[in-house]
Specification:
InterPro entries: SAF_FlgA
Largest sheet: 5 strands, mixed, barrel
Number of strands: 8
Number of domains: 2
Pfam families: ChapFlgA (PF13144)
Domain Flagella basal body P-ring formation protein FlgA SAF: 117-178
Structural class: alpha+beta
Organism: Sphingomonas morindae
Distance between the termini: 50 Å
Shape: globular
Signal peptide: 1-22
Strand order of the largest sheet: 4-5-6-7-8
Length: 181
Protein backbone atom coordinates (compact mmCIF):
# COMPACT_ATOMS: atom_id res chain seq x y z
CA UNK A 1 0.00 0.00 0.00
CA UNK A 2 2.77 2.44 0.96
CA UNK A 3 4.68 1.47 -2.19
CA UNK A 4 1.64 2.16 -4.40
CA UNK A 5 1.17 5.55 -2.71
CA UNK A 6 4.85 6.42 -3.27
CA UNK A 7 4.55 5.44 -6.96
CA UNK A 8 1.45 7.62 -7.28
CA UNK A 9 3.27 10.61 -5.75
CA UNK A 10 6.30 10.01 -8.00
CA UNK A 11 4.15 9.81 -11.13
CA UNK A 12 2.45 13.12 -10.20
CA UNK A 13 5.83 14.79 -9.78
CA UNK A 14 6.99 13.53 -13.18
CA UNK A 15 3.74 14.56 -14.89
CA UNK A 16 3.89 18.13 -13.52
CA UNK A 17 7.33 19.58 -14.28
CA UNK A 18 8.77 22.29 -12.03
CA UNK A 19 7.46 25.75 -12.83
CA UNK A 20 4.35 24.52 -14.61
CA UNK A 21 1.30 26.59 -13.79
CA UNK A 22 -1.52 24.44 -15.05
CA UNK A 23 -5.16 24.97 -14.27
CA UNK A 24 -7.54 22.16 -13.40
CA UNK A 25 -8.04 21.35 -17.11
CA UNK A 26 -4.30 20.96 -17.87
CA UNK A 27 -3.95 24.34 -19.60
CA UNK A 28 -2.02 27.40 -18.43
CA UNK A 29 -3.74 29.07 -15.47
CA UNK A 30 -4.83 32.37 -17.08
CA UNK A 31 -5.82 33.98 -13.76
CA UNK A 32 -2.37 33.30 -12.30
CA UNK A 33 -0.73 34.51 -15.52
CA UNK A 34 -2.74 37.74 -15.32
CA UNK A 35 -1.68 38.27 -11.70
CA UNK A 36 1.98 37.89 -12.76
CA UNK A 37 1.43 40.50 -15.50
CA UNK A 38 -0.16 42.93 -13.02
CA UNK A 39 2.72 42.39 -10.58
CA UNK A 40 5.36 42.86 -13.31
CA UNK A 41 3.76 46.12 -14.47
CA UNK A 42 2.92 47.30 -10.94
CA UNK A 43 -0.42 48.49 -12.33
CA UNK A 44 -3.85 46.89 -12.17
CA UNK A 45 -6.07 46.00 -15.12
CA UNK A 46 -7.65 49.05 -16.87
CA UNK A 47 -5.38 51.51 -15.04
CA UNK A 48 -2.69 53.63 -16.73
CA UNK A 49 0.38 51.49 -17.37
CA UNK A 50 -1.48 48.24 -16.74
CA UNK A 51 -3.20 45.74 -19.04
CA UNK A 52 -5.99 47.28 -21.11
CA UNK A 53 -8.44 44.47 -20.22
CA UNK A 54 -8.47 41.19 -18.36
CA UNK A 55 -6.91 38.22 -20.13
CA UNK A 56 -9.60 36.21 -21.90
CA UNK A 57 -10.41 33.23 -19.68
CA UNK A 58 -11.40 31.25 -22.79
CA UNK A 59 -7.74 31.30 -23.89
CA UNK A 60 -6.39 27.73 -23.95
CA UNK A 61 -2.59 27.77 -23.76
CA UNK A 62 -0.63 24.59 -23.20
CA UNK A 63 0.80 24.58 -19.67
CA UNK A 64 4.36 25.87 -19.89
CA UNK A 65 6.89 23.53 -18.23
CA UNK A 66 8.93 26.58 -17.12
CA UNK A 67 7.71 29.94 -15.82
CA UNK A 68 6.32 32.10 -18.63
CA UNK A 69 8.82 34.78 -19.72
CA UNK A 70 7.52 38.34 -19.43
CA UNK A 71 9.48 40.61 -21.78
CA UNK A 72 9.67 44.41 -21.43
CA UNK A 73 6.73 46.34 -22.93
CA UNK A 74 7.10 47.09 -26.63
CA UNK A 75 4.80 48.89 -29.08
CA UNK A 76 2.02 49.31 -26.54
CA UNK A 77 1.90 45.67 -25.45
CA UNK A 78 3.56 43.30 -23.02
CA UNK A 79 4.94 40.14 -24.69
CA UNK A 80 4.53 36.84 -22.79
CA UNK A 81 6.15 33.67 -24.09
CA UNK A 82 6.74 30.05 -23.27
CA UNK A 83 10.11 29.22 -24.78
CA UNK A 84 9.95 25.42 -24.38
CA UNK A 85 6.58 25.15 -26.18
CA UNK A 86 6.97 28.10 -28.54
CA UNK A 87 3.74 29.95 -27.81
CA UNK A 88 3.61 33.69 -27.22
CA UNK A 89 0.93 36.30 -26.68
CA UNK A 90 0.90 40.09 -26.45
CA UNK A 91 -1.11 41.82 -23.74
CA UNK A 92 -2.25 45.32 -24.82
CA UNK A 93 -1.39 48.04 -22.30
CA UNK A 94 -3.29 51.16 -21.27
CA UNK A 95 -1.31 54.30 -22.10
CA UNK A 96 -0.14 56.49 -19.24
CA UNK A 97 -1.62 60.02 -19.65
CA UNK A 98 1.06 62.61 -20.37
CA UNK A 99 3.74 59.99 -21.01
CA UNK A 100 6.03 60.44 -23.99
CA UNK A 101 5.16 57.93 -26.75
CA UNK A 102 7.76 55.24 -27.40
CA UNK A 103 10.16 55.89 -30.28
CA UNK A 104 9.03 54.29 -33.52
CA UNK A 105 5.32 54.34 -32.68
CA UNK A 106 2.84 56.27 -34.84
CA UNK A 107 2.10 58.63 -31.91
CA UNK A 108 5.80 59.49 -31.63
CA UNK A 109 6.03 60.13 -35.38
CA UNK A 110 3.06 62.51 -35.17
CA UNK A 111 4.64 64.38 -32.25
CA UNK A 112 7.91 65.07 -34.11
CA UNK A 113 8.30 67.97 -36.52
CA UNK A 114 8.20 67.12 -40.21
CA UNK A 115 11.59 66.47 -41.81
CA UNK A 116 12.37 65.89 -45.44
CA UNK A 117 11.70 62.21 -46.14
CA UNK A 118 14.54 60.06 -47.40
CA UNK A 119 13.76 58.09 -50.55
CA UNK A 120 12.42 54.58 -49.87
CA UNK A 121 14.94 51.76 -50.03
CA UNK A 122 12.14 49.28 -50.70
CA UNK A 123 9.11 49.84 -52.92
CA UNK A 124 5.78 48.01 -52.80
CA UNK A 125 6.02 44.81 -54.85
CA UNK A 126 9.83 44.60 -54.67
CA UNK A 127 11.38 41.21 -53.90
CA UNK A 128 13.26 41.38 -50.59
CA UNK A 129 15.37 39.10 -48.44
CA UNK A 130 13.67 38.51 -45.07
CA UNK A 131 16.27 37.75 -42.37
CA UNK A 132 16.00 36.53 -38.79
CA UNK A 133 19.14 36.33 -36.66
CA UNK A 134 19.48 34.52 -33.35
CA UNK A 135 22.25 32.95 -31.26
CA UNK A 136 24.97 33.06 -33.90
CA UNK A 137 22.99 32.00 -36.97
CA UNK A 138 20.84 33.68 -39.60
CA UNK A 139 17.78 32.33 -41.40
CA UNK A 140 16.63 34.07 -44.55
CA UNK A 141 13.89 33.63 -47.13
CA UNK A 142 12.49 35.50 -50.12
CA UNK A 143 9.51 37.80 -49.60
CA UNK A 144 7.55 40.53 -51.40
CA UNK A 145 7.22 44.04 -49.94
CA UNK A 146 3.61 45.05 -49.30
CA UNK A 147 4.47 48.75 -48.92
CA UNK A 148 7.29 51.27 -49.39
CA UNK A 149 9.97 51.30 -46.69
CA UNK A 150 12.73 53.69 -45.68
CA UNK A 151 15.98 52.90 -43.85
CA UNK A 152 15.29 52.16 -40.18
CA UNK A 153 11.52 52.06 -40.76
CA UNK A 154 9.06 49.19 -40.56
CA UNK A 155 7.64 47.48 -43.63
CA UNK A 156 5.09 44.71 -44.18
CA UNK A 157 6.20 41.75 -46.30
CA UNK A 158 4.72 38.41 -47.34
CA UNK A 159 6.65 35.23 -48.04
CA UNK A 160 3.71 33.65 -49.85
CA UNK A 161 0.62 35.08 -51.54
CA UNK A 162 -1.59 33.22 -49.06
CA UNK A 163 0.81 33.48 -46.12
CA UNK A 164 0.60 35.87 -43.18
CA UNK A 165 1.95 39.41 -43.27
CA UNK A 166 5.28 39.82 -41.44
CA UNK A 167 6.47 43.21 -40.16
CA UNK A 168 10.20 43.83 -40.23
CA UNK A 169 12.82 46.58 -40.13
CA UNK A 170 14.31 47.94 -43.36
CA UNK A 171 18.06 47.39 -43.08
CA UNK A 172 19.27 48.11 -46.61
CA UNK A 173 18.05 48.00 -50.19
CA UNK A 174 16.13 44.73 -50.50
CA UNK A 175 16.88 43.52 -46.96
CA UNK A 176 14.29 43.32 -44.16
CA UNK A 177 15.11 42.01 -40.67
CA UNK A 178 12.62 40.51 -38.21
CA UNK A 179 13.29 40.62 -34.47
CA UNK A 180 12.46 36.95 -33.82
CA UNK A 181 10.86 33.93 -35.37
Amino acid sequence: MARAFALLILSCLIAAPAGAVAGPDGFEDIARLESRVVAALDADVATPGGPLTHLDRRLKLAACPKPVTIDPPALGALPLRCEPLGWRIRVPLMRVPGAQPAPGTPAMAAAQPATPAAPPLIRRGDPVELRATSAGFTVSTAAIAQEDGRAGGKVRVKTDARGPVVIGDVVDTGIVRVASF
